[in-house]
Write a structure and sequence with these properties.
This protein has helices at residues 79-92, 112-125, 132-150, 156-163, 166-177, 185-192, 196-207, 211-228, 233-239, 245-256, 260-268; strands at 6-12, 17-20, 26-33, 35-39, 42-46, 50-54, 60-64, 70-76, 103-104, 108-109, 151-152. By secondary structure, it is α+β, with helices and mostly antiparallel strands. The protein has a five-stranded antiparallel sheet, with helices on one face.
Length: 269
Amino acid sequence: MLDNLALYRARIVRHSFKRHSHETYVIGMVEQGVQRFLCESTNFITPPRGLIIINPGEVHTGEAAIPSGFFYRAIYPTIEDFQTVAAEVADFGGAASTRAIPWFHQRVIDHPALFSAWEQLHRDLETPHVSPLEIQSRYRLLLAGLISSYAEMPTPDALLRRRANHSIQRVCEYMQAHYAQDITLRELAAVVHWTPYYLIRIFKAETGLPPHAYLEGIRVQHAQRLIRQGRALADVAYATGFSSQSHMTTTFRRIMGVTPGAYARALQS
């Protein structure tokens, strides 16, 4: 269950994460310092030992709120992981639903014990001294605890309506299918039979990003996947639609906080 679980650890001082989204959940931990971030249209401050939850597809930022920065860890559970555990939790209570996807409204959680449990899991995932059975058990129990205490359980259809209307979803799906190509604004507008101006206005209102920034996020997600497969960075840049390796590096670092090379080296360590 943890084979595809991504981890992140860094000290952030001057770097500012621009508006972006993930296809996974984000469970963030501010170990020291203070972070501020925008999620959707609301600003948040995360103090030391603060736990953060971002839902898949939610546009957010991140930066230091004090000059000394902050020490940060993050775990990125997949939708499938949360959906699987949610079904097990519901079944235990006699109301199983295999389609429900947890949705969290509380972005910052002040719960010292819960923070410590997630932080220790992140540390143990970085080292090989804990057995897979223990790690898998703790991970599932922590997901179940978040779901039971903090999540709503909308169906995928309700979740889709919340995040975007049907036309915008079609545009997003088009970009997902053609991300490696040189997509034009007129091409996207034609997908839903809108004018380019109307598309830009509605797309940003629904997703929080203009189309080009949303496309960059998709390309970075696919670049991560190819880097995990061991592909050369120059090949990754070409395969994901970036104009050059330098362009990919700049965009990747702006969104992920590290360069593609550093990301690849971390996977090998």
